[in-house]
Amino acid sequence: MCYAIPAKVVEIKKNIAVLDYFGERRNVVLDLPDIHIDDYVFAQGGILVRKVDEKEALAVLDTWKDLFFELKEIDQQLAQSSHAEKLSGNALAVLQKINLKQTLTKEDLLILNALQNPQELSVLYDVANQVRQRVHGNASCVHGIIEFSNYCRGDCFYCGIRRERSIERYRMTEAEILATTKQAIDEYGFKAIVLQSGEDLYYDEDKLEHLVKALRQLGILIFLSIGVRPVATYKKLYAAGARAALMRFETSNPVIFNELRPNTTLDERLTLIRELKKIGYVLATGFLIGLPHEQPEDLVNNILLTQELAPEMYSFGPLIPTQDTPLVHAPTISVEQVLKTIAIARVASPDANILVTTALETLSLEAKRQALLAGANSMMINLTPRQYRPLYSIYDHRACNDQTVAANIQETIQLLRDLGRAPMDVGL
């Protein structure tokens, strides 16, 4: 199974290409030269990343021709009745606003976050899944992630690779990163790769620029998750070919932020996130769920701040207390609260792409499926070589650490097919 279906360019409007997937249209940024109407291309994250030979494209499309519509039907069936009669009062009024496609207020989101009854939550998840299906169809993004260094200059209280924690450290060489990426492309069919690390200044601007240029030659979407760097560095990496960036703000509450992230401020973090957007990066951002002292209003404010930042992808997951960190004794948040957050974010921001994080999978084996049925539509598969993967210990007992890439891919393929999802680009 490919992680993107080739599409035909049917229209070009300045820097936007309109792609056709079996009759469905998607707009993407035209980020390659010499692209014309009737060309076949791959796109990821709303960006055109590679032109593909017509014969090759038609062969792939032929294998998808019947399956595409079968999956679409499965997805439509799963996004059916929400049993709205199980809601009452204020929650029912909010549901009616969602059905009428009206903008939800902060008070509306607080009402949804207060839902506790399993039947009421089931309705919320079903409604969120309907919104996802209505806006995105059955499109789902699947990106690969390579965690290339666990060195970090930061000392965040919740993080297992914080500077002050005594753990075995590693750095992948550029040759290792390139080899892992080539395998991901040639053997597994990935079209988008996330490069993630701690804030490791060993990989300086020049090293990162050289790496990005080499990777861009492979015809993929390059997604950076490398933490705080100068704006000038991010501009240089964008010029080198990186087109997406993941940077979470963790919490919208400046007091909590200052307590948990020494030597930096929320304002500084948000300024950099906004600069990434200005540069032109496809932006992924979000927050941690369950930080100490957070109140329901903080969680809703987190969702609203994410919405204000206008990212293309929402990324949030649970705090998982980790040994040898200051938050080791913090309570673990429930799976239901994470699912509820995904669902609320979906109905608040119908256009968003919402990621299922590995941290959520770590809480429950069923959480990936549950999240996709509660409004999520994006996933990442860990491609980090197995000798390094357990060392990227940002939290304890991380899911998929011992699983082979092939096994993880097969499990993901089966899940997506069971839910009727297809790996076509979700577009802009």
Description:
- It is a single chain.
- The protein is 40% helix and 17% strand.
- The chain has an eight-stranded parallel barrel, surrounded by five helices.
- It has 14 helices and 15 strands.
- The protein folds into three domains: 7-78, SH3 type barrels; 84-134, no CATH class; 137-418, Alpha-Beta Barrel (TIM Barrel).
- β6, α5 and β7 form a beta-alpha-beta unit.
- With 428 residues, the chain is an alpha/beta fold.
- It has helices at 54-78, 89-99, 106-113, 118-136, 174-186, 205-216, 231-240, 254-260, 266-279, 296-309, 335-348, 358-363, 367-372, 405-418, and strands at residues 7-13, 16-21, 24-29, 40-44, 47-52, 141-149, 192-197, 221-225, 244-246, 282-285, 288-289, 313-314, 317-318, 353-356, 378-382.
Cα radius of gyration in angstroms: 21 Å
CATH level 3 topology of the largest domain:
TIM Barrel
Summarize the main sheet: 8 strands, parallel, barrel
CATH class of the largest domain: Alpha Beta
Query: What coarse outline follows from CA principal-axis ratios?
Result: globular
Strand content: 15-25%
Total beta strand runs: 15
What's this entry about, in short?
The chain folds into three domains: 7-78, SH3 type barrels, CATH 2.30.30.140; 84-134, no CATH class; 137-418, Aldolase class I (TIM Barrel, Alpha-Beta Barrel).
